């Protein structure tokens, strides 16, 4: 029997519609429009595409967005000054500095300069600390998207055994910490596996929810999952494909064809976690605007 | 066959001797004496004992320590002003505010006011955030003590399956995050279990290293551990004992008598994690003094 498909694109659309409604309400009741500033340093082509997509997504649901382009050779000082200015700008509720930054700029210093209250990427140590101890704060967008996907799909998390494969700072560690909190959409027993894990398959087979975030194409095979598992594939890997026009195609960390024939539910790549990430950036920006009303 | 006893008291003494040597060297080479300020608000008898013990431990190894007593009715403002003063005091490298605080004082605000560079308790969100993503920073003393106990006992952590039972902010969550980092004395596969975990025994039996931090007297029984397990008992529970002079005795979260007959190694209560906690406070204070040389 084939698995249910967890359609990230559709869930993302639903959440974006909800956000658009909230924004209308904020404008009507409080004359407040959520605002996002996106900062891009240099000319990295991939980064330019990401930034453009983020601006477009803002526009589509009614978030005010502005883009700040600094040249590749901009000094750290200039970038920090720009962030300080945005920190004090009342129409800006979220600040996103597109990574990676040029080598001469200290990424840590940049992230630490963003006010935690405007850190809609959830990368400031204060927000990471709050995540770990279960306090209110901005959650990083990809793991937050995974959590929302599970809850919008009605997957029970409370009491489930979640196995996370991968321990990156932007996915594996935060999703593990988020799902083990004594909170709604959480309260799971959580195991984190990685390159040093012995007998990985024996552990992944115990998962009620398996989250693959290793960055290795199609590493998770059918024999590594149980029939009852819900599988969320966070991987985005390019593999060569001569049959494709571009010469490559995108695959996840999960061998979709065989795993989807065995497990209970699965998110595809593309069309799974991807659309959720940008949506949670919008969500955090709207949330930040709402919180600004309380200050 | 009875388990090897992991003697926290002895390991703590070893580390304290090493610290005493380091302090002598800091004094000889840099005319620098590490300094700890301990702040106590009110008259809680248990807190007074803890504070006295911390001061004595400092004195024993050559750390300068000062105690600040504020009355129970001291305002939050007064406490914050004292912390600011200590933040700017060059002879103070560590600031510890003894918890709990009176109800009229916001604990979060107090912890957030301590400079992260002097937060030797490791409770500031910035230090917690750094812990989660594996960056340098102060680690909270109890989980740090557990990690050091394991490494000083020669227990292999790299590649081991660590099962943590309990998800408190001061023990369960930080120890889980510390041991899963790609770092020395870490690199473990980590599972966090808690009150909502289904079939707890099936999971704890998989542990190469079992860390009990639930706060429930003698909850971990022999049938929950494997023969190869190293068991670290973080629990400190008072249970009634008419045979004792005080009318009670201290027990851990592990049923020591039966578990120690089965597993490979175990830390007792008392004499296990307890002496390590205060030792890591001293360790962090010395570390902070050393870091002050680099600023």
From TrEMBL, chains A, B:
GO cellular component terms listed in the entry, alphabetical order: cytosol
Associated pathway: One-carbon metabolism; tetrahydrofolate interconversion
Lineage: superkingdom: Bacteria
Swiss-Prot/TrEMBL catalytic activity: (6R)-5,10-methylene-5,6,7,8-tetrahydrofolate + NADP(+) = (6R)-5,10-methenyltetrahydrofolate + NADPH; (6R)-5,10-methenyltetrahydrofolate + H2O = (6R)-10-formyltetrahydrofolate + H(+)
Record GO terms (molecular function): methenyltetrahydrofolate cyclohydrolase activity; methylenetetrahydrofolate dehydrogenase (NADP+) activity
Domain Tetrahydrofolate dehydrogenase/cyclohydrolase catalytic residue range list: 6-121
Assembly: Homodimer.
NCBIfam families reported in the protein's UniProt record: PRK10792.1, PRK14186.1, PRK14188.1
Role noted for this protein: Catalyzes the oxidation of 5,10-methylenetetrahydrofolate to 5,10-methenyltetrahydrofolate and then the hydrolysis of 5,10-methenyltetrahydrofolate to 10-formyltetrahydrofolate.
Protein name: Bifunctional protein FolD
Taxonomic lineage of the native organism: Bacteria, Candidatus Moduliflexota, Candidatus Vecturitrichia, Candidatus Vecturitrichales, Candidatus Vecturitrichaceae
Gene designation per UniProt: folD
């Amino acid at each position: 029997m084939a698995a249910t498909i967890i359609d990230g694109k559709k869930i993302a659309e639903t959440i974006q519609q909800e956000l658009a409604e909230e924004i209308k309400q904020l404008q009507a009741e409080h004359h407040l429009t959520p605002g996002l500033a996106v900062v891009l340093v240099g000319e990295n082509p991939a980064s330019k595409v990401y930034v453009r997509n983020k601006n477009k997504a803002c526009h589509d649901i009614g978030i005010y967005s502005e883009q700040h382009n600094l040249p590749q050779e901009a000094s750290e000082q200039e970038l920090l000054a720009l962030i300080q200015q945005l920190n004090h700008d009342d129409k800006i509720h979220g600040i996103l500095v597109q990574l990676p930054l040029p080598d001469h700029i200290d990424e840590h210093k940049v992230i630490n300069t963003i006010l935690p209250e405007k850190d809609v990427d959830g990368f400031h140590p204060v927000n990471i600390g709050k995540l770990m101890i279960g306090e209110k704060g901005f959650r990083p967008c990809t793991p937050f998207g995974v959590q929302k996907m599970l809850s919008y799909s009605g997957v029970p998390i409370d009491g489930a055994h979640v196995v996370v494969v991968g321990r990156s700072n932007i996915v594996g560690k935060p999703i593990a910490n988020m799902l083990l909190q004594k909170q709604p959409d959480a309260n799971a027993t959580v195991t984190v596996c990685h390159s040093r894990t012995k007998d990985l398959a024996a552990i992944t087979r115990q998962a009620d929810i398996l989250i693959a975030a290793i960055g290795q194409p199609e590493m998770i095979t059918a024999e590594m999952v149980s029939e009852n598992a819900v599988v969320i594939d966070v991987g985005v890997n390019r593999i060569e494909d001569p049959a494709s026009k571009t010469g490559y195609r995108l695959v996840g960390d999960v061998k979709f064809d065989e795993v989807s024939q065995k497990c209970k539910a699965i998110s595809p790549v593309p069309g799974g976690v991807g659309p959720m990430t940008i949506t949670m950036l919008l969500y955090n920006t709207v949330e930040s605007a709402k919180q600004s009303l309380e200050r």
